[in-house]
Structures are given as structure tokens and as C-alpha cells.
Amino acid sequence: MAHNDKLILLFAIEDSLTPDQERALDDIKAMGKQRLGSYFDTGVVSIETIYNRILEEIDDTDRIKISIKAHMIPSGNELMIGTIRLIDLFEFLRKYKETTGDIDLLYEKNIRKFLGSKKKVNKGIERTLMEYAERFGLYNNGITVVVEDFESTDDVFILTEPYVVNGCQTTRTIWGVMIKKLEAGGTGNNQELETWKEKANQGIVIIKIVKVGADGKALLDDTTRYTNSQNAIGEKDFIALESDFQKWSKQMASEYNVFLEIQKGAWESKKAYQKQNPQTPQFYEYANAFDLLKIYAAGWLCEPGIAFGKNPPFAPGGAIFKRITDDPNFGLEDLYAAYVLAKVGKDYNFGRGATIATRGQTRFLFFTVAIEILKDILLTALGDPDKVNYKNITKSILSLDEKNLLKEITDSAISVIDDYLTQGNEDSLFTEPIYSKTNDLNAFLKWDKLAKGDQFTPKLKMQVVFAKKLLRKNELFSNILQTLKEGGPPTRLPQTLSTIDLADFPD
């Protein structure tokens, strides 16, 4: 078997295991590990566990309570600071998984999920655990756990509704290493294992436990934000704390069967969970919320240069983020329309893997051009400039996608992009007055005045005008026009018959 292969004996049941069944399962696991080593594992999934996972709000009487053994000192009424042995932290994680059935629920309030053992930082954490476990507290920054409440007896604390808001990579790496080391059964040299255990018993993790209360969302969010203010965390990651995006993520899943990623690494985590639990509802399509904001800005707001060149304006608190989310009419439908546009745009192969040179850096400009062409047809269909607004652009995209007509517009847009980026063509980017002053393609495509009219990019304006005229000669133009005249959202929910994973595009 390969290094990453795994053989899991999975039991699907209705109710949680009884104590006798848990002991029997432990016996099966021990026998399997003795024969196959770390490749073998057992698992249980119950209807009860599935219900707990998808339940959006847990009733007050069903609060999760997990004990943890640590050396802590209080700092006021809301904070405890101290250390926890590696072995005791692993025991806490094991109890959490046994109680909830899903260890990833522990990170639901974090800004990102586990990013995998291949990441450089996580490789470093794993190496420290394997080689210098006794020095772990010296090399690691520690973890932060938020709880609704805590009770203590000596060094044992009962945590109510615990969530790790800083230290996901640390705790999940500890979990992975210790599962292999302590529960692998009969593999490796026993003396080496005993030596490692002695070191691990000396190793500690610095821990903070913050009590936020049952209604302490503001304190929870602030704790998450400020404890994740390292260089490795970008401001865009804090989109996970925005209540609107939390709501839209759930709605995108329920209404469109699309997984909206608001936590960094959440899609990889979700795919792994689905693979291990094939009986659970499966997502085959996903979109990154931050990327959809950029697509919306490039298309609807005509900001391709900023979308391509910068991240901060789109992060929570940024100028364009506020411009979009402060609009009371912006919502789930707009995010989904941006996703639909992205899905169509994926067929043209933009980005680093572009096979056509003109498409390497022009993804966001393509969205701008597509919407500009759509707006012209929408004006013809509705006959009123005031009706060519953001909401009607959204509805038009969804209606055209429903009738399989959207690609007629995006094909026109990609023709503009290819012609505009080809040297020697009339009205190409390289003949723009501003370009001749710098001859810097990258800077030009990140220019905040890009596509803002013939005052700044007259050659692009001419290309778009020509594309609009050409599209009117398309044999399907009358169908497009009629669809836009009818207006309104699609008459049915979109189908998800094919597997479509939107790739991460370079910022």
C-alpha cells in the first residue's frame, strides 16, 4: 500500500454506539492495526451524528461539554492562561471526536480549516512533534479555545461548547501524529516508540481559554480576529467572521447545492469528509466567496484593474467590500450569478495554465467586457437606462444561463479579449495612448482606470462597440432579447449533474 493509503472499516448505524459496542469496535481496531498497522482504522457514522452535523443551531439543553486537563491560572473572569501536556491535548481531541462524531466541528468558528500535512508550516509542526516533542512548547505559539463557560476542579476543566479559534493547524497536526503513534498498534520499533512517548510526556502546548458566554458573538469574533493577526493570515481570511457570508454559505448549499467556501481550506476539508462519509449529502460544485466578490466587482462595478491587482479593497473593511455589502439589494442571488459567470469563464482557460497567451492575465477584464455587452442588450430589451441596474444584470445572467444563451455573450466577450491583447491588431491594447507611455502590460491590466470609458481606454471601447454590433447579427440574438424582455429569475433551480471544481485563480 502507498504511504497515504488507508483502509477504513466503516459501520453505518442508526443510533450512537452502546458501551459494549464501543468496546467491541476497539477490539476490532486493535486486531486490524496489529495485522495492517497504521493503514487500518475503523469508523462509525450514525443518523444521530449526521443530524448533529447539519443542525444549524443546537438547543440550549444539548450543549457539548468536554473535560480537559491543564495547568491554568485565571486572568479576570473571562480568560485562563496556562499549559497543557501534548498527551492531555490529544486526549481532549479524542473525547471531542467521540462526543460529536466529527473533530472538524471544533474549528467551525475558526477563519480556516485544516490545510493539510503538505503545507510548509504544518510539515514543520509535524517534524517538531516527531523529532523534538519535548521542546514543542518552545517552538510553537500555542492555541486559543473559546467556550461558553468553564468549570474547574483542580487541574481538570469542563468546557462548554469549545471551539479552537487559533491553532487549527497545530491541534490537527498533533491529532494526526498521535493517532499514528499511539493507536497504530504493532508497527515500528517498540524502543523507539517508548523513547518518543517519554519525550511527548515532557512536551506542552501554551493554551488560552476564553469565556465568551452564550451570546458572546462579538467577543468571539474579536478573539478570533486578534489571535489570528500573524503574517500568514491575510485580511481576506476574516470574511469567515462576516455573519452575512455565514448565512449566504448555508443558503448557497441549500438552494443551489454549491459549497460556498468562506473559511480557508474548508473545501479541501469538505471533500475529505465527503470521501470518508459517502452517505452524507455530497457537493460537486464549489466557489470561493472572496473570488466571487472580485468577479462581481470586475463585472457589475467595472473594476477589473483593482480586482486583478489588489486584495485589501475586497477584504472586510475594504472600500470595495463595503461598496458591495452596504448595498441593501446585494445578496445570495448576486453571488450565485457571479458563480455562474465564473463557471462559464472557466471554459476559456484563464490564468497560469492558459493555452492562449491573451488569456493569461485577463480573467477579470473578461468579466467586465461580458457585462458591458450584456448591459447594451439589456438597454435595448428594457428601453430604460434606469433599469440597467445591478439587480437586473444579475437576473439577466441567471435567465440567460437558464435558457443556455449566456455563452453567446461570453463568446463575444472572449473575442474582444483575444483581439485586444494581440499585437498588430487594429484597436489593440498596445495602441492605447496610456500604454505607449509605459509599455508595462502587467501594470496596465492592474490600472484602476482600465475599461472606464474612451477617456482612458478608447481602443477597448471600440472593440466592445464592434462586438455589440456583431452580436446583433447572431441568429440567436432575438432569443436573447426576448429572454431579457421577459426578465425575472430562472423558473427552476439550477441542475448540478456534472462535477465542476472552480480552480483557484491567481490574485
What does this structure look like?
This protein is α/β, with parallel strands linked by helices. The chain folds into three domains: 1-56, 2-Layer Sandwich (Macrophage Migration Inhibitory Factor), CATH 3.30.429; 62-233, no CATH class; 276-501, no CATH class. It has helices spanning 19-36, 47-54, 86-100, 120-131, 136-139, 168-183, 190-202, 217-227, 243-256, 266-276, 289-299, 304-309, 319-325, 332-346, 363-382, 390-402, 406-420, 435-438, 441-445, 458-471, 477-486; strands at 7-13, 40-46, 65-69, 71-74, 79-85, 143-147, 149-153, 156-160, 163-166, 204-211, 259-261, 285-288, 500-501. Residues 56-61, 229-234 and 490-507 have low confidence and may be disordered.
Per-chain topology:
Blueprint: E1 7-13, H1 19-36, E2 40-46, H2 47-54, E3 65-69, E4 71-74, E5 79-85, H3 86-100, H4 120-131, H5 136-139, E6 143-147, E7 149-153, E8 156-160, E9 163-166, H6 168-183, H7 190-202, E10 204-211, H8 217-227, H9 243-256, E11 259-261, H10 266-276, E12 285-288, H11 289-299, H12 304-309, H13 319-325, H14 332-346, H15 363-382, H16 390-402, H17 406-420, H18 435-438, H19 441-445, H20 458-471, H21 477-486, E13 500-501
Parallel strand pairs: 1-2, 6-10, 11-12, 12-13
Antiparallel strand pairs: 3-8, 4-5, 5-10, 6-9, 7-8
Helix pairs in contact: 3-6, 4-6, 11-14, 11-15, 14-16, 15-16, 15-17, 15-20, 15-21, 17-20
